[in-house]
Amino acid sequence: MAEDFHVALLTSDVLRFADACEGPLAMPTEELRLEAERYLMHTYARLPISIARGRGSRVYDLEGREYLDFVAGIAVNVLGHSHPDLIAAVQKQAQQLLHASNLYYTEPQVKLARTLVDHSFAKKVFFCNSGAEANEAAIKLVRRYAHEKYGPDRFEIITMLRSFHGRTMATLTATGQEKVQKGFAPLLPGFLYVPFNDFPAVEKAVTNRTAAVMLEPIQAEGGVHVADRTYLSGLRDLCRQRDVLLIFDEVQTGMGRTGTLFAYEQLGVQPDVMTLAKGLGGGVPIGACLATDEVAAAFSAGTHASTFGGNPLACSAALAVLRVLLEGRVLEHCRRMGDYLAKGLHDCMDRLTMVKDVRGMGLLQGMELAIDGQPVVMDLLARGILINCTVERVLRFIPPLIVTQRDIDRLLDVLSQVLNKRV
Questions:
Q1: Which of 63, 119, 166, 344 stands the most exposed, by the fewest C-beta atoms within 10 Å?
Q2: Phi/psi at 191 (nearest 5 deg)?
Q3: 335: CB partners within 8 A, 6+ apart
Q4: pLDDT of 162-205, one tens digit each?
């Protein structure tokens, strides 16, 4: 019976379909771009290269050109590209079990949850597939917690202007940027926005309808703005006094990006709920919502779910990432390279008046310009370096955590050349 099954898979029709699927991988970049324009929804303004493979801190396009990667899949590839431990974990798990659903226990999921709990404030974990889903889970969790404790009138969540929490209806409503909300009205009710790093504004906004305060320790998409320690301390005290939950969106800052496993460890404040994604799987999609025991108890069987959340493949990848971060010296290396990068960017600011500010933590650094940043991104791309621009004038540098001093020197040298041409 098993032999018949395998023979049936090897029909000529299946083989022809496989050959057809492989064809586009050999397309020249321009042909691939035209195919993408024809078949993909136009939700991204893509740069004019087609990345085919990567290794370490470098990626290569279809024509074989090399690029130094200071985007890392938007803070995803924390171990760089093609890390051997991550590859081995994915290959091994793929041979055993890809998916079983959350109707059953699977060992990788339980091990990953235990590892995250052992190295954080949290006691329980919910797994999903992305940062937006993790934030959706957090929003539902705090609303249900407040509903069960105080009734249906306690549902509002205070978020920050310039924040970014995702593209689903709830998370784009939570996002404090009108540009991502435009055209999607009516938005979900129950969100209030206040300025970031403004404690009196939050204090004034909290009422007996407030369920939670939600923020990013660093507003990465909003221009790389770092939360002040005194501000966070004030929020923690306020939330404790008013029995309001504190949510940290660490989708971009988590998994070693700032030099510790989670950014809150350096900022001296523990949240009640924390969300993770991006770097958690090192390139394999996975998200997580972490919470204290008391808050997590608001979720019971049937109140929230995710078909693919915490599947064995993604959890095995995340476990491999965590092992490298916790057992190696990657976090220490990230702190050193982050300091080195920040110093180099500040030196550049000292020389050039067009550089208005440099800010960040670890290997999440931003450089604010007095000019449009996208042409600078394109100039660096032409010179073989990938960077990113957010809020139009802030260059964002988020390389793999394994980036070397030599890589940073190259970036700083080329960046200085490009900016000097624009003086």
A1: 63
A2: -120, 135
A3: 259, 362
A4: 999 999 999 999 999 999 999 999 999 999 999 999 999 999 99
